[in-house]
Amino acid sequence: MKQRLLSLFRFVYLSLYLIAMVFPLYWIVITSLKPQKDIFSYPIKYWPTTFTLDNFINIFKISKFHIYIGNSFLIAISAALIVLVIAVLSAYVLARFTFRGHRQIMLAFFVTQMLPGFIALAPLYLMMSQMDLLNHRIALVLMYTVGLIPFSTIMLRGFFQRIPGSLEEAAMIDGCSRWSALIRIIIPVMLPGIASTFIFAFVQNWNELFLAALFIDNDSLKTIPVAMNSFILKFDVDWGSMSAGVVLSIIPTILIFAFAQRFIVEGLTQGAEKG
């Protein structure tokens, strides 16, 4: 009897948790497909009487949404690729070699994850201003890269430690250089970790709002999260257009997680085993 009650409690708890997680997404999608009269109708309509694509059409009419998508994709993919290259190399060194300052470097990486990012806003803004990089995509690429390198390095270091050093030693005995062994032997084995790290970096860059809003003021250079603010008017909020924009903005991340789910789960699990 006790076991049945416990199972029932778990079922009810997990069901409520699932509803709490899924309902906001459901509401955003339904709102994006509602006509304006249904969005503000009372009593609230949890299922629209008619479906319309007017909100999706409207966001391309009243804003440069296709440009915002392009900006977000260019910045997110560029920063994620740079982070991946630097993190792979630095994680390999930290996992395979012991040298003076090794522990201090790892400690510094961990400390950066504990500090709130906003404490660096003033010096960052001053640096970007002196380098004449305000209102430039490269500014966001640089800041996103620097911000994600510590965590990505820590994550990939766990994967390198999990791979026995004898694997690359055998490759070097067969004539490979250390660099060749890394590229041809170790990295293919680490594909789940590399994929999960890249996806993590891409999603973080894609969704970032604060830095993008602070350093980009030119409308043609804005990213999607910043562009969403344009639907918040002085005395009103265009919920239909905003919901349509949110739906379009989450499609790339949904597709990435759908196609790379196996790599993500396997990569995060393996990387957590040893760090």
Automatic annotation (TrEMBL):
SUPFAM superfamilies: MetI-like. Pfam families: BPD_transp_1. Keywords: Cell membrane, Membrane, Sugar transport, Transmembrane, Transmembrane helix, Transport. It is found in: Cell membrane. The chain crosses the membrane at residues 12-30, 73-95, 107-126, 138-160, 181-203, 239-260. Coiled coil: none annotated. It is a multi-pass membrane protein. InterPro entries: BP-dep_ABC_trans_perm (IPR050901), MetI-like (IPR000515), MetI-like_sf (IPR035906). Residues 69-260 form the ABC transmembrane type-1 domain. Its main location: membrane. The keyword Transmembrane helix applies. Belongs to the binding-protein-dependent transport system permease family. MalFG subfamily. PANTHER family: MALTOSE TRANSPORT SYSTEM PERMEASE-RELATED, MALTOSE_MALTODEXTRIN TRANSPORT SYSTEM PERMEASE PROTEIN MALG. This is Carbohydrate ABC transporter permease. It comes from Paenibacillus lignilyticus. The lineage of its organism: Bacteria, Bacillati, Bacillota, Bacilli, Bacillales.
